[in-house]
Amino acid sequence: MTLLALPLDGIRVIDFSRVLAGPLCSALLGDLGAEVIKIEPPGGDDYRAIGPFSGGESGLFSAMNRNKQSVVIDLKRDEGRALAQALCAQADVVVENFRPGVAERLGIDYAQLAAHNPALVYASVSGFGQTGPESHRPAYDIILQAMCGLMDATGLPDGAPTLVGDSVSDVVSGIFASWGVLAALLARERTGKGTHVDVAMFDATLSLTAAQVARYATTGIAPQRVGNRHPSSAPFGAYRAKDGYFVVAVLNNRLFERFAHALGQPALVDDARFANDAARCENEAVLRACIEAWSGIRSIDEVNTLLSEAGIPVAPIQNIRDALESEQARERGLLVETSSSGGGTMRLPRQPVQFSAWPATRTTRAPRLGEHTLAVLQRQLGVDATHIDALCAAGVLGVDKTVSMPNETIQEMNDA
Description:
alpha/beta, Rossmann fold, formyl-coa transferase, domain 3, 2 domains, 7-stranded mixed β-sheet, 3-stranded antiparallel β-sheet, 18 helices, 14 strands, 15% strand, disordered C terminus
């Protein structure tokens, strides 16, 4: 049995995607050991120009393009398309997030590439998928949050629909795309055949709201905004303490009895208004007043200590700094310090799954634009340096002029 350095060791990915959903998909594959070759236009991925910046590098680009090599090819030129097609002929996976129809015009759609590489797994991430009346619409995260019911279900009952505080449609689409690629690779091991993985952000975002979808499928009624509480359980939400807010999650009568005693209000257990979860949810406002009469004179730390000691699921409401700098996050290694292209160091997110067979997955810096054009084309296709220079002069290729050793990041990946 071959011992793999990482789960996807030996898998080669050609990544034509840009911005967030597609790059996250390929980054997750790179985390697991896949060789990811990112094909960028001469101007680079748009995310390279989006802040915040550290040492001249975009933090967003760095996070979504860790573990990759950058090759600059102008796909609008015949010579560029031929080189891209040749790279794809040797690949296991292709990832793209063009609007439907664009990849075909560029000569890198599934049908054209699979004709020369039937084992290819080809993942397309788009706003609405490759089929359907909306398929050719452009899509951004806010569009999908609006169209999939996520905004409508988020916020206070008497307030406006509210965006979830991150690009969750992009992120979940990238995660589902990587999941689809892995399933297709597993099937290929059995059949020898690749497939087209079609991921629509619309579909993925609806799948993200699994509980909402289940409620609607069962009742035919669209869920309504309920603010910082659970729509069908209580007490299950955010409550006020003397110095801020905390959350509790009480989901059954046994836990509610323990909760009532922790509050010093055992009579709540025998109150018909709180006899079961449905009754507590219906009378949530009254129950909230009882809880906040107790918590409102105590600090968040005191509330968390008292309720934790009673075995009640409770937590303070933290910001992202609190979460990432916590001892729990440090122990789990969720941020990894790695070298930056400028010679310093930077922290990058590590994929969250841990495997007993491997001590760690891979997290190396994002590449400079065109950093690996020379190395990849020489190694994969045998293109000589003179020809590459001529193609660079003609604007077909781009090479990072600061690279003295083209294999720098490749070696870092091999050593990781």
